[in-house]
Amino acid sequence: MSKSISKSTLTQLITLSILIVLVVVLSILAPEFLTYNNMMNVLRQVTFVIITGSAATMLMITGHMDLSVGSLLALSGVVFAVCAMNDIPLFLAGLLGVGVGFAFGVLNGILVTKLKVTHVIATLGSMYVARGLSYIVTDGKSINAGLPRGFDSIGRKMIGTIPIAVIIAVLVLLIFFFLESKTVFGKYAFAIGGNKNAATLSGIKSNRLVLSIYTLVGTMAGLSGVIMASRLGAGDPNVGNGFEFDCIVAIVLGGTSVAGGSGSVIGMAIGALIVGFLSNGLNLLGVGTFYQTVFKGVILVGAVLLDSLIKKKLK
Amino acid sequence: MEQPILSIRNISKEYPGVKALDDVSFDIPANVVHCIVGENGAGKSTLIKILTGAIEKTRGSMLLNGQEYYPKSIKEAMRAGISVLYQELNVVDELTVEENLTLGAEDTRFGVIRHSGKTQRVYEVLHEIDPSIQLKEKVEKLSMAKKQIVEIAKAVAANASILIMDEPTAALSEEEVRKLFTIIHKLREQEVTVIYISHRLDEIMEIGDYVTVLRDGRTIATKQASGIQGQEELIQLMLGKIVIQTYVPSVIDTDQKVLEVEHLTNDKLHDISFEALKGEIVGFYGLVGAGKTEVARALFGADPCEGTIRIDGKEVHVRDPRDAIRQGITMVPEERRTQGLFLELSIKDNIPVMNYKKISRWNVYNKRKQREMAVQYIKDLRIATNSEEKNVSLLSGGNQQKVVLAKCLNADAKVLLLDEPSRGVDVGAKDEIFHIIRELAAKGSACIVFSSELPEILALCDKIILLYEGKIRAVIQNNAEKQPDSEKIMQISTGGLDKYE
């Protein structure tokens, strides 16, 4: 028998089967589950995780994490709203919002790669700073008055029957899938996460690469924040609490190793959909959010456990 | 004849489509050093894993002291008195010697560690083996050899009656090997049976009482070491054909200096100057700690250094390995698993890492070209694998080393630094690696070999540079008619002699 299926493909197949089982079960239990409107509703909800998670998956493949993405989502949205309110053209306001994420991404990257702060600590620090800044900018209140017309277009408008946000998420996903699987950049990310020593001795500038991926993560968190604010029609400093963990859940469900070296962006998208469908389905079934949180924890550990059990069996 | 301590009877291990072990049978008498030799893939590791309960046999039986022995876990094997000293040592660097010795067997009261007669015995065992090791010292500060001694003491104190040593000398200098052998003799006196696995046949001839040769998962022979007619006979048994290593002078273009190094200095090296001519294989020899790896790493930009490096007469500056690769210097690192390979990645993903240019355009790579490249190297270097998609972690040591070589060859370097190129590699693969290095030199690359195995240096290198304490002590021209005096070389390398005349 030749080893035709690689480990990460196997994990993806397992997560994909979990997703399919979940969809089948939910559509039997809740008749309104498999409707177009409901599907779009779920897709809209998972766009944020998919946009940010695409970059964060690459980051985790290198063996690093970013805990600041939830706060960056809030800060970028707030900056977008404040700029828009102050008559800065919408496009530029959006760009500034994304720019805040970019700047924090660079900061995180420098802290981790140049100043050698442990990645969890560095991004935990940024998490507090960014959250604090979004409270300062808004004085702790949600900004929803005086926003220009069109502020909500990127978050709510559709092209044909598909929300713009969903299209953006799919594009981002495809770009990162391309980066991961077709480019030298992606190969290097796997190499750094798999064996940093060997990567350095192979002439890979790991610091430079990790720095650029942190920047991408920050930027994608910024983009998510702008879309979120537009969708809410407000710059709310409280959004995105726990968002960093939603991303990590999706990434890990998708078969990315927390230690780095293996993983996949597509797997992350499947993971995000599992979480999205699950909470949506539970909503439809009338299960309260308190219980949903419990479910999320169970499914995370359960899926990882199932994955390792199946792999052990096949060995 | 006395009852053997361990009888292996018709052991087979089958994986789907592969017979790793095929009807292996032999006896291990008590209180001897019993060596197991064989090429990589001959079944040595599989046999050890079965002995220690890491995997289950498919068929056959084992008798330990005349009793049916069928371990289901490593712990069970240890309880039965079989311990293993793995190639990758199982010591915790951050803990002290004392803590390591009792790790897992601490004497506790209410969870608090206390000292008692039981722990005292472990310390005594260590003291007996090597009194120079301090109990309070952190293990990370110990040399490889001393770490090994700590592990041996731990196993002996746990009442091991059989101690399996898997390539114990792979990371040791000749001096340390001598010391290990003294310890092995002591163990035998203490009625510990040692199962000794090594690629170094000279060691086996020296330390072994019995030798079992495995080939392709089968027992070829079990012999008393005293009855073996030299290493050639062992090699013949292992390979089924004779391989004799002799020095073949390279064709050297004396007018063309590919590499010139002047006054290379850093905290470990003092004023290293040498040159490599076109087609020449230069060898650095020295004991562990003499500075071989440091020279390689400095030239490769992996460690900071001062000095001048010229390639083809042009001065180059290497700040880091990436610079080095761009300037035409590449390195096969000392430790292939931790420094050379990406174990979770496939062969085809490992090979192009140093140089993607040939298979990519605008940093987007071409899957077809990548596969073709891997297939070509698998064919050229005779890497034994059924697919280029195979994870390198699943390859044998020799084949892993060939993947590292392929990775470096792909960088198209003018200067190839090879740090311990055949460490932990079987005789057949070693031969092939030598052949690859000679071919590279013949094509005009400068090959610099760093090795702590003198036979390797003598067989391969045209010029031999002896290092001692970070300094060059002597430069010797190899000679096909008259082999350099290895005793003198050893004396210089241990600091006993200043010059080679």
TrEMBL record, chain A:
InterPro entries: ABC_transp_permease. It comes from the Bacteria. One of its GO terms (molecular function) is transmembrane transporter activity. GO terms for cellular component: plasma membrane. The keyword Protein transport does not apply. Pfam families: BPD_transp_2. Coiled coil: none annotated. The keyword DNA-binding does not apply. It is found in: Cell membrane. The chain crosses the membrane at residues 12-30, 42-61, 91-111, 117-137, 158-179, 211-233, 245-278, 290-310. Keywords: Cell membrane, Membrane, Transmembrane, Transmembrane helix. It is a multi-pass membrane protein. Its main location: membrane. PANTHER family: ABC TRANSPORTER PERMEASE PROTEIN YPHD-RELATED-RELATED (PTHR32196), RIBOSE IMPORT PERMEASE PROTEIN RBSC (PTHR32196:SF72). This is ABC transporter permease. It comes from Diplocloster agilis.
From TrEMBL, chain B:
Keywords: ATP-binding, Cell membrane, Membrane, Nucleotide-binding, Repeat, Sugar transport, Translocase, Transport. One of its GO terms (molecular function) is ATP binding. It is a peripheral membrane protein. GO terms for cellular component: plasma membrane. It comes from the Bacteria. The keyword Translocase applies. Pfam families: ABC_tran. Gene3D superfamilies: P-loop containing nucleotide triphosphate hydrolases (3.40.50.300). Residues 6-241, 252-494 form the ABC transporter domain. It is found in: Cell membrane. The keyword Cell membrane applies. PANTHER family: CARBOHYDRATE TRANSPORT ATP-BINDING PROTEIN MG119-RELATED, D-ALLOSE IMPORT ATP-BINDING PROTEIN ALSA-RELATED. This is Sugar ABC transporter ATP-binding protein. It comes from Diplocloster agilis. The lineage of its organism: Bacteria, Bacillati, Bacillota, Clostridia, Lachnospirales.
